[in-house]
Amino acid sequence: MLWDSDVYIGALVGLLKSKSMYANSVIVYTADNGGTGAGLNYPLRGEKHTNWDGGMRTAAFVSGGLIPATLRGSASILNCHVVDWYPTFSYLAGVDGTDDPPVPPLPVDPSNPTLDIYGNHSYPGVDGVNIWPMLIDPSAHNKSSAHPYLVLSKEVIIAGNYKLLVGQNVGWDHSSDDGWKVPGPNGSWEGAVWTSPNKSMPCGANDGKRPSIPLMTLPGIPGQLPCLFDLEADTSERNDLGPDPANSELLQHLWDVLNRTVMTRYCRNVKAHSSGSCDRSPPEKLGPCDPACAKQHWGGDIGPICGVPGCNGTQSA
């Protein structure tokens, strides 16, 4: 895969140069998640499908002739997200990268976390921000310049060096990837072995609230506080700072911000399969809904149940 990537990216770069377009180009190459299987994320903890940094923190690089020569070969410490590239590319292309609703949504209500704040006439705007100024002038910005609070999943929020981790993704069995895959001899993939923590942290368990509509509930494992990590001092997420009374105010603040962000989810019609995913399409636009047929079509509860090719809504076996 890496060899093919190198060949075809090289061909694209060659084409841009042949058309005298490279000097005005930006190329972004990014992973979508941490490694799994033969992948090696050490010193990060966990792997793909987990909320540990080994599953969520990914490698990326930015290239192209538009990158100032003084920045080539440097690294950015900016906390950013893949959704930031849309408004960034929009800015570079000279177009508006926002999509704000004509009718503002209602404010969230912590006493009513399932409140539909959008109704029929509003929707959430673009989550990402234009990070170009922060990339080309890093001395004028810090780690949190793009996102003072960066929510990575229903259970994870990042604020500067700190990460609040409520639990693992609902539905995944993380018993086998809760620790660190330590490299083999000479740092090689071959011979890499898993090492497990001495005891499992509360945030190593699945997010405990799993009714029939998990996406409509707030994150949290009943009776347990989230974990709090200082990712600057503890890249491997070994030391939970949550139990320290000195950190209780920070923990509660980040948990509140996470909860309020989760309450802005764009969800109304919850689908009938176990993932609890949702849509906002009116019934007449959905097409026939046939959970049993859809499950067979997708090979499990991993896709839409309405408008699936070959499923006519007769609840086929």
Describe the structure in your own words.
By secondary structure, this protein is of the alpha+beta class. The protein folds into two domains: 31-267, no CATH class; 274-317, no CATH class. It is built from seven helices and ten strands. Strand 9 and strand 10 form a beta hairpin.
Furnish the topology, listing elements before pairings.
Layout: H1 2-18, E1 27-30, H2 53-56, E2 60-63, H3 85-93, H4 132-136, E3 150-153, E4 156-159, E5 162-165, E6 180-182, E7 193-195, E8 227-230, H5 248-262, E9 269-270, E10 278-279, H6 283-286, H7 291-298
Antiparallel strand pairs: 1-2, 3-4, 4-5, 5-8, 6-7, 9-10
Provide a short characterization of the protein structure.
With 317 residues, the protein is of the alpha+beta class. It contains seven helices and ten strands.
Please state roughly what percent of the residues sit in beta strands, choosing from under 5%, 5-15%, 15-25%, 25-35%, 35-45% or over 45%: 5-15%
Q: Outline the low-pLDDT stretches.
A: none
Order of the strands making up the biggest sheet: 3-4-5-8
Number of domains: 2
Helix content: 10-25%
